[in-house]
Specification:
The chain has one domain. The longest helix is centred in the N-terminal third of the chain and has 19 residues. It is α+β, with helices and mostly antiparallel strands. It has four helices and nine strands. The chain is elongated. The protein has a seven-stranded mixed beta sheet with strand order 3-4-5-6-7-8-9. Keywords: Signal.
């Protein structure tokens, strides 16, 4: 009798164990994105900068820039494939997809600027121009070296602004 109870209990635990193990679906990244970009640790955090007389902020995490996921750029072949897919959509659907991509995904091209690990950002698949270049660096403010982000734009990586770890430094 005792053996029978042990077998029933063991069978019950096995069934409960398998029932508890359910597979989790992993959502494939949309529009060809394959590999998340990992930002340099020194670039992560909330950064503050001054624009048009106002202090603004940007947030960089391990895989996001202002809440948008960052992915390595597609190969030319894949880019053409997904761009053609997008451009063959009806106008309303194109607009909807464009807004989705603009607010959720970014293409990243890593590069070195003056020997420093940096990254270039574009809207995923539909980015125009040279994008924004982000380079972690240091600046001397009030006689002290402080961490900063250099944000450049255009084909020449022209300086747009420096961002700092505190709003006071951004003034």
């Amino acid at each position: 009798m005792k053996k029978k109870i042990m077998w029933v209990l063991a069978a019950f635990l096995v069934v409960v164990g398998f029932a508890g193990m359910h597979s989790q679906k992993v959502a494939a990244a949309p529009w060809g994105a394959k590999k998340l970009y990992t930002t340099p640790a020194v670039a992560r955090g909330t950064w503050y900068y001054k624009e048009e007389g106002k202090i603004k902020s940007l947030k960089i995490t391990k895989h996001t820039f202002n809440g948008r996921k960052m992915y390595y750029e597609l190969s030319s072949k894949d880019h053409e494939k997904y761009y053609d897919k997008w451009s063959s959509l009806p106008d309303k659907k194109q607009d909807k997809v464009y807004k989705y991509l603009e607010h959720t995904m970014m293409e990243v091209i890593p590069f070195k600027w003056k020997g420093i690990k940096s990254f270039n950002l574009h809207t995923w698949l539909l980015g125009n121009g040279a994008g924004e270049q982000v380079t972690p660096t240091t600046r001397t403010l009030h006689g002290k070296k402080v961490p900063a982000l250099r944000v450049g734009g255009g084909a020449g990586n022209w300086l747009v602004f420096y961002a700092y770890k505190s709003p006071d430094l951004a003034k």
